[in-house]
Amino acid sequence: MTTMTLPRGLYVITDNQLIPEDKFVATVEQAILGGARVVQYRDKSHSRTFRYRQAHELHQLCQHYHVPLIINDDTELAVQVNAEGVHLGKSDMSHETISHLIKEEQLWVGVSCYNQVALAQHAMTQEATYVAFGSFFASPTKPHAISAPLEILQQARQSLTCPIVAIGGITPENANLLIALGADNLAVIHGVFGQTDVRTAAANYARLFESSF
Q1: β-pairing verdict for 69-72 and 85-88
Q2: Confidence class of residue 94 from pLDDT cuts 50, 70 and 90?
Q3: Under 8 Å between Cβ of 87 and 97
Q4: How far apart are CA 149 and CA 88, in angstroms?
Q5: How far is CA 22 from CA 71, 147, 188, in A?
Q6: What is the pLDDT of residues 104-130, one digit of tens each?
Q7: Domain count, the chain
Q8: Could you tell me if residue 100 is inside a domain?
Q9: Domain containing 100 — which CATH number?
């Protein structure tokens, strides 16, 4: 693993609808150069062979910049490409799954907790690496996502010791509020990869963390 815990800051999530296939790695590199501290590979539509190739190339890029790579909902792929971690939904959050992935596969495990602090507390008892809450704002990527109230960040910050990731419709204009309420990371898709200048877009989020210490 590149670090002992999830680095604080911008957490970008890839989207094959937004990133051209022939510029996939180069586009993610621009996000890293702009200040992304974590990269999650998310692809629900392509073949396993395609996803392995992309994830493998992406991990090589991330290793070059010492940025951890998280694989969305595919533990087998995470192990195959030697990624730093895997991100799971609540349906995958069994004690056996998380314990095995952390102890046997040496993977970080992030868990989506939506709008439930109790789910995050349970994840922590299973030694999850980080938890994610959202959607906090309307999201162009997931318009029907579960809505989470801002207060959940304060509640989570009071009871959790692991890193807290905020997701859902986050822009440079509303992001400061989430950081102030306790978010350690901002997970962003469209706000970075849906922009013409990916590097500048990433930098607009990254600099918010520089001023929040």
Answers
A1: parallel
A2: low
A3: no
A4: 21
A5: 20, 34, 21
A6: 889 999 999 999 999 999 889 888 999
A7: 1
A8: yes
A9: 3.20.20.70
